[in-house]
Amino acid sequence: MSPSKPNHAVAGLACLAPETLDPMTDSPTFPTCARKSPHPFRMWSARVFGALALATVTCSAQQQTPPADPQPPLPKGKVLFERHEPPAPPDEDPAQTAPAADPATQPKPKSGVSTSSRHPRSLKRRTDTPEEPAVESPPVIVTEAPAEAVSSSTDAPEAIVLTAADLAASANVTVAERAAPQIARTYLDLHLNSHTGEIETRAQLLVRNTGSSPMTRLPLRVSGALQWESARAANAPLKLEQHHIADDLDHTGVGTELLLTLPEPLGPGAMVALDLYYGGTITASTGRLTAMGAPAGRAASTDWDTVTDTFTGLRGLGDVLWYPVTTAPALLRNGDAVPQSVAAARIADAASPFRLDLTVEYTGTRPDAAFFTGERAVLRPLGGSQAAAGNTADGAGVVTASWSRAAMGPHTPSLFIAQAAPHLAANGLLRVVTDRADTVAALGEAATRLRPMMSEWLGAAPLSAIDVIDLPIRSAAGYSDGTLLVAPLGTAPAAALAPTLVQPVAAAWLPPDVAAAWLREGIPTFLQAVWSERSQGRAVALNGLASNATALQAQAAPLPSPTSSSSQDAFTTQTLPPLATCADPACARARAAYVFEMLRGMLGDSGLQQAISGWRQRLAPSDATGQIRSTDGASGGAALAETTAMEQMLQQVAGKRDLGWFFRSWIDAGHSLPDLSIVTVAPRRVERNAPVDYLPAKKPVGGPIGPEPVPQVGDPTYEAERKPIAPGDRIAPAVGSWLVAVEVQNAGETEAEVPVTVRAGDLTNTLPLRVPAHGRATIRVPFEADPQEVVVNDGSVPEARATTHRRSITNLPPAR
Predict the structure, then answer these.
(1) Is there a domain that residue 183 lies in?
(2) Percent of the chain with pLDDT over 70
(3) Could you tell me which of 558, 618, 474 has the C-alpha nearest to residue 149?
(4) Do the domain assignments include residue 790?
(5) CB neighbour list of residue 277: distance below 8 Å, 6 or more residues apart
(6) pLDDT confidence of 517, banded at 50, 70, 90?
(7) Which of the residues 156, 387, 442, 620 has an alpha carbon 20 to 30 A from that of 248?
(8) Which helix (H) or strand (E) holds 169?
(9) So what's the pLDDT on residue 735?
């Protein structure tokens, strides 16, 4: 019986040599293997079940020779890993070479936690030197995970303890050394055992020196649960120097840092190709949160990343470092250091290509599909058939999938595995992976409720399906990336599930791979507010926007000036980066939602719907084959083209009303936030034969004088849109009514148009007022009853301080 082929041992397949990474191209170039090479090409190997045996496969496209000394069948739960070169010798144990540390300086272990920083590896690998001692792996944090997420493995890992040697080694790496390297291209060949949680990975990286001086040492990190095994550069082995370091970018609270001494200095802007191997066991860990004093249950519902037979989810940087990174370590106790590091990494890696070849060894039911950065790929048996995959009667086998992204975009590399085939709902719009039939029905009903709103704002039909994975950890924090949603679904009704689905459903309507973050992230966030307004009222929707205003105010808050001694110049205003080029989803999401809400007030619902749906159609028209053409997310010019297309559609809908000032103030240029205040309020009763000059130049919402109608959902006369406010006829108010003059000052550096409302009880009238930067503006609002209060800005315009300003009217002039 002939042996099964390893994952990549296919005739004519490229050899994965480190020197084949071409820094000048968008994808790696690989030389094909020699047809009659006398040396075996060592690749990933699959576990063979039953009578099949593992064999070394040559790179020849014509023949394969059986190994002289075949390996026995691999025990269940073990992954075998073969290299194409001898592994680097293991490091010397610091405990044996370093002088004994003073016990007083050693960190005291927690009760019940071992002080050992080593954990014997249960993952075996084949090498060219069998007599070489096995390399030990680092231990992992011991946590008590929820029952749904407990690993199938019976081996209990030990806790990670930072030793004095670890602290000394990490302190030896300078800040400049950690800041200089940047990964320009990543190619991972990942072999994962879902039964044991063990992984073995070959990482081919192209690393650039972004510093101003040559680099002689290069640091890289993975999770503290993993260990570096070998490294090569320029086809020569490099000595391994690795240590643990405190790092809350991983759920263990520890990273394993590799410090490579380069064969020659790497100049500024130069790149080096690295060929690395690392492996270990990934299980659920609450180490970083419990160390901060978080309750175990709360920590487990937040840090749920794990690899098991029932669920596999790895969210990447900020949760679990399952791939190499160069981002500097960050600690939760340092405020926003962790989210800021994640955001900075997204921006730095947005244009970097990433290729992933995944091999999953499973026990039990064969997994159906895997998701990399939200992109779904069906897991297929190795070799194309069940027999070739090594499946046996006990339900074990090997499946594979691959992804290749020309650019990561503003994504964090994430990996999820769906165990079961999906259930279709909402006429195929949803693919739901869950064992709860009632949940599938509720999700389908929720998506059906959202469809009319999406059709109004984005177009008639979606461009892709939505994948929903039931997270088997109740009360856990959910995760979404594009059209992928991973969350504990439970048995909630459709009305409660609809808000959760707004963002992934909107992403399904948008063109794929939109490069401009403010459009890709902002449109779904804005539609979330629209849905809240329709289902719960405008006050609830504005409160949702207000939660985003806090983050914007912090970004634009004045900073103390280090050079000024004057009290007036003691603070400098921070400028937010241009929204059009903002690559951080958090930044783009909050600001863009406000931008679309302000445009909604200027153009009305119908006008803004026409602009957004027209932009979508222009960006991704359907051709005769039904395929969607989209821009290349890897190009910075694509984001600019998408922004220009949106501005053109908005101006086309606005007609003669010039929106250039708005684009300059809020989208195209860096800006701060407006800082508004009410200067004066002057009510005046309208007498008989009142001059027309008293009247406003714009038609108010809901009529010339009187309250704005508040339609209720379900009312036959309900209209989803608000009427746009445009220059119109001057309308004379009724005798005995009021004209309320309101003067508003803007102390900020950004021009804004805000709603000005006069109210008396439930009676209101609202008009828009455009206030220039560092200037004032006045508007007269007609009102048919005795006015009681003036409100400037209802919360739809973000400001540097408060987003709503009120002034009570207590003294009205008497009638003549």
Answers:
(1) yes
(2) 67
(3) 474
(4) yes
(5) 81, 83, 87, 200, 201, 202, 203, 228, 229, 230, 231
(6) confident
(7) 156
(8) helix 164-171
(9) 54
